Structure prediction request, 218 residues.
Amino acid sequence: MKTETFRALGEPSRLRIVELLRNGPLSVGEIADTLAIRQPQVSKHLRVLAEAAIVAVEPIERRRIYHLEAEPFEEIGEWVDSFERLWSTRLDSLDAYLNSLAEKRNEDE
Amino acid sequence: MKTETFRALGEPSRLRIVELLRNGPLSVGEIADTLAIRQPQVSKHLRVLAEAAIVAVEPIERRRIYHLEAEPFEEIGEWVDSFERLWSTRLDSLDAYLNSLAEKRNEDE
DNA sequence: GTGTCATATTCTCGTCAAGGAATATATTGG
DNA sequence: CCAATATATTCCTTGACGAGAATATGACAC
Prediction:
């Protein structure tokens, strides 16, 4: 998993932008107005999100319409799934760990 | 969704720690040795992860065994699912957006 | 071309966070 | 209580990053 993806989402304004774009594509100005963030900051945040491939842009007339990309979210989904698949065995792992400690103790005796 | 969760994961060393703990609980020293990170930094990263409720600690003998918590991963999973549910309609949304632009153009005429 | 709207970039500044080194705080065993 | 091990915390320095203001770039209309 890329830390870049999480880093991009780990900033309040950027997460707000992402959750806003969840409802559909928007232009830079619409994002700025809706979230009450100044346009330059929006552009900067969108740049970070674009570098993380979380958003993409499509120029339409004079505007640049940003929309979410599917891939990063699919990656995150698969990543958390890979954890949750092990979840059922987590307590077993803890048990195993405690047992290994117990074994070491026995070896030392 | 909390930005705190993503912020905690958006740091390379911390993501490495999380992916290491994916294999099972470990003590601070074991994490430090495995990842070749100095112990104080490991403790500091674990503190951030614990504040984000991504890990929890269980003291055993002289050690403190850290393990992953399920909840944040479930939250992330639900969050990305909520996006992917809308994924099928993303192109429709783009269409709708373009249509709304077209309507505005018509209004102006 | 000029002007205008929409967006991107640059600059500076302040803040925050990560790493290193040293030290403090348990916890356990004698 | 003292020593030793394991972990946490503090202080310091440095680099990264976000916000603001100003400016630059780009696309379109005339």
